[in-house]
Specification:
four-stranded parallel sheet; Rossmann fold
Length: 404
């Protein structure tokens, strides 16, 4: 029986998940020991249904488009798996002569990766299982950062800069931008990069690592209204109160899957009701993980490298490991991949450290900005920002001008 490889995606896609697929595929096709290179169509559900595609049959032009294609080309899933399903997947793996398995995903996928590794061992199968990190939320343990995060960070930084300029031009309201981040505020924190280079950035940032206090939020916003009239707030979707409960009850929850309520609308409504000031909520949602127009080239290259490294590790006989990144220096930016034990990663969430969050819990520190800046790639485009503009009051005498 020929020796084959299987690549499986799990969890929500990112702007660079296909770059990892591309890196793994290219590395596999160079090794003469590898027969078929399967992709599980639809993640674990596809594997359970034996819905596997030999990627060698894909047109070469389509393969070359992968690094700049959002979503998952082979599909993904977020299945709640039972123990019997792990055994079933291991049986399918054995029946297809798969010697190397690469699982690309976040926390849930790394748990699946570890359990599937154990299921294969229990059946006496010699399968090398390696995890490829992927999550826009950047909450995987051990690694300095995750492929998928740099692009999400670039998207939110650029988008918030644009919102800030819009609000500055007509400063009559508070705008609350809600971003992804169930228990970790990495994406929301990245919005602070909007202010790089003296450009417009958010006024307040609220992260799930700090309890959300309504009174302090209203105090912060009120102070900003007094100062500049137009205010931009960025908030993570997973904000919780002092009691540990979400500030907005989830609409639906099943296992690790949580459908949050509208945090941006809730905060905007607080401003309207309690401060009697105009406010609105914005929610980029899936745009934050699907934008190739704002894909970070650094993120794309590291995603490809993660796929290549995982493939090489599996082919070299490694198993039960995940590819991780170690930062060697920030200026100049240099990282190196290494292998971490999958057991040190499984369902261990990496949250923002205290040193990255400001004293008041409503923003980030320079240390975070220095850490995050290299991940988004080249500097954001500079935009015109007039520091002052002459605006004559309606009752001003002819020929006089006031600089406002």
């Amino acid at each position: 029986m020929s020796k084959n490889m299987l690549i499986l995606h799990g969890g929500g896609p990112t702007a660079v998940i296909n770059a990892s697929l591309y890196g793994a595929y290219r590395e596999a096709e160079r090794d003469e020991r590898v027969g078929k290179i399967y992709g599980a169509i639809g993640g674990t559900s596809g594997l359970l249904r034996e819905c596997l595609m030999d990627l060698r049959t894909i047109d070469e032009r389509q393969m070359e488009l992968l690094p700049a294609t959002p979503g998952s080309a082979i599909g993904t899933s977020r299945d709640a798996l039972e123990s019997g399903e792990y055994r079933r997947m291991a049986e399918v793996i054995g029946s297809y002569g798969i010697d190397w398995l690469l699982c690309n995903g976040g926390n849930g996928t790394m748990e699946m990766c570890g359990k599937l590794h154990e299921a294969c061992e229990a059946l006496g199968l010699s399968v090398n299982v390696i995890g490829i990190p992927k999550t826009m939320d950047n909450d995987l343990a051990v690694t300095d950062h995750c492929p998928g995060y740099g692009s999400a960070a670039r998207y939110i930084a650029q988008s918030v800069r644009e919102v800030c300029l819009d609000v500055k031009s007509m400063p009559i309201h508070v705008v609350v931008v809600e971003v992804s981040g169930r228990n970790a505020g990495w994406v929301a924190a990245a919005s602070a990069l909007a202010g790089d280079g003296g450009q417009q950035g958010p006024d307040l940032i609220y992260l799930p690592e700090r309890p959300f206090l309504e009174r302090e939020f209203l105090r912060d916003v009120s102070a900003m209204i007094e100062q500049k009239k137009g205010v931009v707030v960025v908030a993570s979707e997973g904000l919780v109160g002092p009691d540990g409960k979400p500030v907005v009850p989830p609409v639906f929850k099943a296992g690790r899957s949580v459908y949050y309520g509208d945090v941006s609308a809730h905060l905007a409504n607080l401003v309207i009701r309690k401060l009697h000031y105009k406010a609105r909520g914005e929610k980029p949602g899936l745009l934050g993980r699907a934008s190739v127009a704002l894909q970070s080239p650094v993120d794309r290259e590291e995603a490809r490298l993660a796929g290549e490294t995982a493939c090489r590790a599996a082919l070299a006989g490694e198993s039960g490991k995940m590819v991780a990144f170690r930062r060697l220096s920030t200026e100049p930016y240099r990282v190196e991949p290494f292998l971490a034990d999958i057991r040190d990663v499984m369902l261990t969430e990496r949250k923002m450290p205290d040193v990255f969050i400001n004293e008041h819990g409503n923003g980030v520190t320079e240390e975070f900005l220095d850490w995050c800046r290299p991940l988004i790639g080249p500097p954001l485009p500079e935009m015109a920002s007039f520091r002052a503009a002459p605006i004559p009051p309606a009752d001003q005498k002819r020929g006089e001008r006031t600089i406002c």
